[in-house]
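[#protein-structures] MJ: dropping YceD family protein here for a structure pass
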Amino acid sequence: MSQRKEPIFDAVVRIDKLPAAGRSVSVEADEATREAIAKVMKILSVERFSAHLTVVPLRGGLRAQGHLDAAVTQSSVVSFEPVAETISEDIDRVFLPAPRDSQQPTPGSEVFVDLESDDFPDHIDGPEVDLSALLLETLALALDSYPRLEGESLDNIGVSLDEAEPGPFAKLARLKDGNGDKS
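AK: finished. structure tokens for YceD family protein:
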């Protein structure tokens, strides 16, 4: 029996109950939710997390368009000091039903998938789409992979990448070059 993980916040949309004109989905995360997001993202804190999406039906699925705004704090990769970051990302994602077994391609046939296309849809299984996963994914992809304070570098903390690293073969290398000790 598989257990389904509960989303951190509720942004589930039922396709079968979506009006033809669409609907708006807004998320303003409270303090407990922001703490949970920070824990999942493995960052120090989330000070602000808000998203506004317009969700409309599309070919048996849906299209979610909108914007995510967040303020987060991560640890610097150099000094581990807190680094504040502001996230502002547009969202445009299409969710379509997965192909049925009867629509599977013939074995051995070629299937063209354009991975460079911005319109590459996500497949859904069932009548619901959890937009909280989309919002968390958008935040994760927008985070700076190597956060650091302005002007911060390894040289500032006394680490030089130019120096030869002392290791078990350093003395042998000096001997080979003729610069080593004779001891």
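MJ: nice. The chain has a mean pLDDT of 81.
AK: one more thing. The two ends are 68 Å apart (CA to CA).
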